[in-house]
Design a protein that fits this description.
Layout: H1 3-12, H2 34-67
């Protein structure tokens, strides 16, 4: 593999900090009651779980591809 390809691969596999923002505006916390805040937290946790599951699936696919490199 050429040095250029190694660098491109390195950049494509580079850690990316959490790019997604919260699905609700922060100022909502000030106007929601406790039950609504708990429901909002549940939505945000479910979103994070879904994103992490998708990332894990993608990582597994990448690992399978990388294993085939000789």
């Amino acid at each position: 593999m050429s040095e250029k390809n190694v660098e491109a691969l390195s950049q494509s596999l580079k850690f990316r900090p959490w790019p997604q923002g919260d699905p609700a505006a922060p100022w909502l916390i000030d106007i929601l009651d406790r039950v609504q805040i708990a429901r909002l937290a549940s939505v945000e946790l479910e979103l994070n779980k879904t994103i992490l599951e998708a990332q894990l699936k993608a990582i597994a696919h990448v690992m399978e591809i990388v294993k085939t490199i000789k």
